[in-house]
Write a structure and sequence with these properties.
605 residues, alpha+beta, Beta-Lactamase, 4 domains, 5-stranded antiparallel sheet, 16 helices, 17 strands, 19% strand, flat
């Protein structure tokens, strides 16, 4: 016997990993299926016996609660119709001249009395008073018109019952319950007719409030009468409802591909049919406790299976776990550490071959990553230098053109000072640095602004504002000059009055905001949309915003450029750059500029 067990262990150990998992799964699933089948059979038997009784009792209790609230409304109508306040006021109105000032004032007082009487009853929306003089007014909220034939029928029933209570179910035309009675003289016991009161009650609100107490979570409640539907929680298509001739009952049926349970009961007081409709899978009471029992049994089966298969599973999954841990380390970029986590003694099954192939793959990927990194870094540097090279010739052309204009105009002193500013600016522009601090960028921009101020003496006013630790932020060199140039081209040149150009550099919570704002004519919404989408062509030889967006994209994925403009008020362009560190940007630190300086020197040699 012992030898057979050992032989089976060897056979199981030599099986493929897929076969081991399948055998274990089939045995466990078979046990679970047998236990669940037995438990569910017991649950369904109890369910069939108790579901109707509990659901029917709950629906009956719900109908009684609604009837009690309707009885309270009926009692309120009696209290209002026989109350001293209404009786006295109607007696006074009967002695007054019809439609006189005193009569109208008394009518307003009666309306206030009725309003106060129904104020505490949120179900009653309004009360309508009418009498033989054709005096009709409404106290409360307006709920829409009542058809004349319905009003006439109600008043006729009021008169027939001589002060008795009358109700009319809601209809599609008027979805409110109409109740009321005649007001008879009771103070002097003459029982003379004094008027009629018609109450509009929001029965749907009342039913919905009571429906929240139903136990079924996904139940759909329906209430209808011979006149039509009174309350419906949801639209139900092709549902055959019980006939009004039936008293109470239940049935199980298929509705829209799902087995459902429907129970119904007709109220003797109101003649309304109450229907509760919910999925058959919802169970109550003992069935719920049985569900917990099934869960405990299933959990016990799983626990026993886990304990029995623990040793086997460990032998199967250990190599895969080591391989998974190695993959997690690879995600962090540590290929050497990943190799150390791989199994040392690789077996000949699928897990061993997979680990061996993974080790070979790590070696190849490590080599490819280093080669590709250097290539991408070189491509990025080259692309950035190409974008920057678009700016320098264009800027120098515009500056020399402005200087030539000043010499021809005879402004030699201004031209001399302008040449000094140009020399200062060219020292920064022609520097091999690709990235400079925000402070250095503003210094170069101030020289550019000084040059432009000579050209636009009486037409433009330039203002430069700086706030925060600008030395801690690195930006692409000459990132602001194209924006100021655009402000001059599209703002100053197109303005007939003095145009102010505001340049701001502010630090806010680790983010640098560079803003160039002009008071020019601005852009229309269509032009602004084209600029934001990058479909607008630059004016003349302008660089355009596409160049700046590409340069920002090379700096950081969090860098952004936003354009806002209001016609007649000007345009505002904002650049947002985070504080870059050695980890967040390849060109963010001074050491990066130094390295590029060395590359530039080598290229010049």
């Amino acid at each position: 016997m012992r030898k057979r067990i050992e032989a089976w262990k060897i056979k199981f150990r030599d099986l493929r990993l897929f076969q081991k998992i399948m055998v274990t799964f089939l045995i466990t699933a078979l046990l679970i299926y047998m236990m669940m089948a037995l438990t569910l059979q017991i649950a369904f038997r109890i369910y069939d016996r108790h579901l109707y009784e509990k659901s029917q009792a709950e629906l009956d209790f719900f109908a009684q609660q609604v009837n009690e609230r309707l009885a309270q409304i009926e009692a309120l109508t009696v209290s209002i119709a026989t109350g001293n306040a209404v009786q006295d006021k109607l007696s006074q109105m009967g002695e007054m001249e019809y439609l006189s000032r005193e009569y109208n004032y008394a009518k307003q007082q009666l309306m206030g009395i009725l309003q106060n009487q129904i104020f505490s009853q949120d179900v009653i929306r309004n009360v309508i008073y009418t009498d033989q003089r054709q005096v009709t007014f409404t106290a409360g909220m307006y709920t829409g018109p009542i058809k004349p034939q319905v009003m006439e029928m109600l008043l006729q029933q009021f008169h027939e019952k001589r002060g008795g209570y009358v109700s009319f179910s809601p209809t599609e035309d008027y979805p409110y319950l109409l109740t009321g009675r005649d007001i008879l003289e009771v103070k002097n016991a003459t029982l003379d007719y004094m008027g009629s009161l018609i109450f509009s009650c929001d029965i749907a609100k009342l039913i919905k409030r009571q429906a929240n107490n139903l136990e079924a979570e996904h139940a759909t409640l329906l209430v209808y009468s011979e006149q039509g539907m009174i309350y419906q929680e949801a639209e139900l298509q092709d549902l055959k409802l019980p006939d009004m001739s039936q008293e109470r009952g239940w049935r199980v049926m298929n509705y829209q591909g799902e087995r459902t349970f429907l129970c119904y009961e007709k109220s003797r007081e109101t003649g309304w049919m109450y229907v509760n409709f919910f999925p058959y899978s919802e169970i109550y009471g003992q069935v719920l406790r049985l569900r917990y029992l099934v869960s405990v049994i299933i959990a016990a089966v799983f626990a026993g299976a886990v304990l029995a298969l623990r040793r086997i599973s460990w032998a199967m999954t250990r190599p895969l776990e080591q391989l998974t841990e190695s993959m997690k380390v690879v995600e962090q970029g540590d290929f050497k550490g990943a190799k150390k986590l791989l199994p040392q003694n690789l077996s000949g099954n699928e897990a061993g071959r997979l680990a061996r192939e993974f080790d070979t793959m790590l070696t190849q990927i490590d080599c490819l990553i280093h080669e590709n990194y250097e290539k991408q870094l070189l491509i990025k540097d080259t692309k950035y230098r190409m974008l920057q090279s678009q700016i320098n010739p264009h800027f120098l052309y515009n500056t020399l053109n402005s200087l030539n204009w000043m010499v021809k105009a005879g402004s030699c002193d201004d031209a001399s000072r302008m040449i000094v500013e140009l020399g200062s600016l060219l020292r920064g522009v022609l520097s091999p640095k690709i990235y400079v601090t925000a402070r250095e960028e503003l210094a170069m921009l101030e020289s550019y602004v000084a040059i432009q101020q000579y050209r636009y003496k009486n037409r433009a006013q330039f203002l430069v504002v700086a706030e925060g630790e600008l030395e801690a932020y690195f930006v692409p060199k000459m990132i602001l000059q194209p924006l100021v140039e655009n402000a001059i081209s599209y703002g100053v040149d197109c303005s007939l009055k003095l145009c102010q150009v505001l340049i701001q550099a502010k630090e806010r919570e680790g983010i640098l905001f560079l803003t160039v704002q002009d008071q020019g004519p601005g852009m229309t919404p269509q032009e602004l949309e084209q600029v934001r989408e990058g479909t607008c062509k630059p004016k003349g030889h302008g660089i355009g915003l596409a160049n700046i967006r590409e340069r920002l994209a090379l700096v950081s994925a969090e860098a952004a450029l936003r354009v806002d403009s209001v016609p007649g008020e000007g345009t505002k362009i904002t650049i947002q750059i985070p504080r870059l560190t050695e980890d967040s940007g390849a060109f963010s630190e001074p050491e990066r500029n130094k390295r590029m300086d060395g590359q530039q020197g080598a290229e010049n040699v």
